[in-house]
């Protein structure tokens, strides 16, 4: 551990991506939204869950992309392979599975009882001799491209993705894959909600530090002053346009409640102050910046719709999914390592959960008002400063993805 007073906070972003105002119509235009569905949500890698959600043969989750009216089955077969299929029975098109998760080594369609195995093969047809010329081997579930990285399952609706997932996620390298894929990560808690806002606005809200001093003036502004939240952009990356980082000030400023200070003695989930009792998944070398005494977390934007926060002992995944140009589904999930072993750690966990609930509420409440002003045509462009550079990088990536090449 170095001396806090001599460890510099990295500088804020530059203007390397330009300074011009960004038009706002990509948040509100129906025509743009239709193109996003085709060129982004049918072409890029989408995070759909954790590999541990389908830990054993027959475990499944279903994933619904509202804007596309597409439901996907993710399951694990008897060989241990994770597979993905359109949730579409090849008999007459019903959803084969109707629950968000479950276990079914054989998936039975609820309409007429066609049965599919976890490799998608049509295994049984009631009254098969009622059909005429019939080849079951040609009537398996339609496959969807799927891969696993960092313990997360990603799908791609492009049957032949233009870029493999591992390459798509560069500069997140094998160290990230290993660290995030550690089996010790356990789901802690999460929330989901719909917002009357474009799906990208909920991403924008999490990828810059400029808002912290004002938005979080009643909570964490003293713990992460805006100038302690620099950013990096990765113009050559296909799937990771930018990250924002968070550091503590040398001297805590602003609000530190007695409850938060007490909580910090017992675990890592409080952002308010340096914890005295942090735990971590093994081998965070090259992932965690924890040799910097003031570092709190890095948050990576995974194009198109994920913000992945990596903190010592905790990861946070925010995902948004489009419903319409001005409506989206927002989900957030927290994962921790280690078991809660005593009341102090339980207290820390609960305090962290309540605190982050308040912080997220502060982060997201602006989105619906912004959307109204875009929809009404009152605000036609937005202005982005150096500290908000991830938003400009996100916009650049969006516009290149809209060419529809998958890159
Ligand atoms: S639609 Fe599935 S068995 Fe008929
Ligand atoms: Fe925030």
Structure overview:
This protein is of the alpha+beta class and about 400 residues long. The protein folds into 2 domains: about 5-40 and about 185-400, Alpha-Beta Complex (Naphthalene 1,2-dioxygenase Alpha Subunit, Chain A, domain 1), CATH 3.90.380.10; about 45-160, Rieske [2Fe-2S] iron-sulphur domain (Rieske Iron-sulfur Protein). Helix content is about 20%, strand content about 25%. The chain has 9 helices and 19 strands. The chain has helices spanning about 30-40, 165-170, 175-180, 200-205, 210-215, 260-265, 345-365, 365-375, 390-400, and strands at about 20-25, 45-50, 60-65, 70-75, 80-85, 100-105, 105-110, 115, 120-125, 145-150, 150-155, 185-195, 230-235, 240-245, 295-300, 305-310, 315-325, 325-335, 380. Strands 2-11-10-5-4-3-6 form a 7-stranded antiparallel beta sheet, with no helix packed on it. Strands 12-18-17-16-15-14-13 form a 7-stranded antiparallel beta sheet. A 3-stranded antiparallel beta sheet has the order 7-8-9, with no helix packed on it. Helix 6 packs across helix 7. The chain is globular. The two termini are about 40 Å apart. The model is unreliable at about 1-5 and about 270-280 (pLDDT under 50). Bound molecules: FE2/S2 (inorganic) cluster and fe (ii) ion. Fe (ii) ion (FE2) binds near residues 212, 215, 216 and 363.
């Amino acid at each position: 551990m170095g001396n806090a007073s001599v460890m510099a906070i990295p500088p804020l972003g530059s203007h390397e991506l330009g300074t011009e105002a960004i038009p706002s119509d990509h948040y509100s235009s129906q025509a743009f939204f239709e193109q996003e569905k085709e060129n982004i949500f049918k072409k890029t890698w989408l995070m759909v869950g954790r590999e541990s959600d389908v830990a054993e043969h027959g475990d499944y989750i279903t994933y619904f992309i509202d804007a596309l009216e597409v439901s996907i089955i993710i399951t694990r077969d008897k060989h241990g392979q994770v597979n993905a299929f359109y949730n579409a029975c090849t008999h007459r098109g019903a959803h084969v599975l109707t629950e968000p998760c479950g276990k079914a080594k054989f998936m039975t369609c609820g309409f007429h009882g066609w049965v599919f195995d976890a490799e998608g093969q049509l295994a049984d047809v009631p009254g098969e001799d009622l059909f005429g010329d019939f080849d079951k081997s040609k009537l398996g579930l339609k496959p969807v491209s799927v891969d696993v990285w960092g313990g997360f399952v990603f799908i791609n609706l492009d049957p032949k993705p233009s870029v493999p997932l591992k390459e798509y996620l560069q500069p997140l390298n094998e160290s990230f894959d290993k660290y995030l894929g550690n089996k010790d990560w356990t789901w802690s808690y999460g929330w989901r909600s719909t917002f009357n806002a474009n799906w990208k606005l909920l991403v924008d809200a999490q990828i810059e530090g400029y808002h912290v001093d004002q938005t979080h003036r009643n909570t964490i502004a003293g713990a992460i002053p805006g100038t302690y939240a620099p950013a990096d952009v990765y113009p050559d990356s296909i799937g990771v346009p930018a990250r924002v980082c968070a550091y503590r000030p040398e001297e805590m400023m602003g609000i530190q409640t007695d409850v938060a200070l007490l909580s910090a003695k017992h675990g890592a989930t409080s952002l308010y102050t340096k914890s005295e009792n942090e735990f971590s998944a093994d081998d965070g070398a090259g992932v965690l910046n924890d040799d910097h005494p003031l570092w709190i977390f890095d948050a990576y934007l995974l194009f198109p719709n994920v913000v992945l926060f990596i903190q010592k002992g905790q990861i946070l995944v925010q995902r948004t999914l489009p419903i319409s140009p001005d409506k989206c589904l927002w989900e957030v999930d927290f994962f921790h390592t280690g078991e809660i072993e005593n009341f102090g750690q339980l207290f820390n966990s609960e305090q962290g959960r309540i605190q982050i609930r308040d912080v997220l509420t502060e982060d997201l409440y602006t989105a619906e008002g912004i959307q109204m002003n875009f929809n009404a045509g009152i605000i036609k462009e937005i202005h982005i400063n150096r500290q908000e550079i991830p938003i400009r990088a996100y916009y650049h990536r969006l516009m290149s993805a809209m060419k529809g090449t998958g890159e």
